[in-house]
Write a structure and sequence with these properties.
single chain; alpha+beta; elongated; 28% strand; Thrombin, subunit H
């Protein structure tokens, strides 16, 4: 009896030791910084808008038929003459039917009307994606097929 209880306690202690050791408490050393600086990545599907008016800390631009554009989205001012080099980061403050206003939150250089704004579209909600509905249909078909095969 005592040997079975001792073996059970030893096994429990071994499992606890493995859990603590594998929990990420001991992180490996960080690697050296890369030699090439990491540049911010603007998504390729970002919409491009021409800046109409630049004030001290805001930029106004026409929204055309971009219905998805709304307050709170991030925008990037880029310089097309320097291969879309990042000039500033902005946040959209308000949107009317024809124009939108963005606030400069950080900048590398002064934003001018020669620059363009790149605004990535907001992420699609999970229930509106095709992959969700395909998974729902396939899962339902597999469930119905399994239920019919079991009966």
């Amino acid at each position: 009896m005592k040997s079975a209880a001792a073996a059970r306690r030893a096994m429990l202690g071994f499992v606890a030791l493995l859990t603590v050791a594998g929990s990420g408490c001991h992180r490996p050393e960080r690697s050296a910084a890369p030699l090439v600086p990491v540049l911010p990545r603007i998504p390729r599907d970002a919409a491009r808008f021409e800046i109409d008016v630049v004030d001290d800390s805001t930029a106004t631009f026409r929204v055309f038929e971009s219905r998805w554009l709304r307050a709170g989205l991030s925008a990037y001012a880029v310089d097309p003459t320097r291969r879309d080099a990042l000039v500033a980061r902005l946040t959209i403050l308000r949107r009317d039917s024809t124009t939108a206003t963005a606030l400069v939150t950080s900048q590398v250089a002064r934003v001018t009307t020669d620059h363009f704004l790149l605004v990535p579209p907001p992420p699609t909600p999970w229930w509106e994606t095709k992959l969700f509905w395909i998974g729902t249909l396939v899962g339902s078909a597999v469930g119905l097929g399994t239920t019919a095969a079991v009966r």
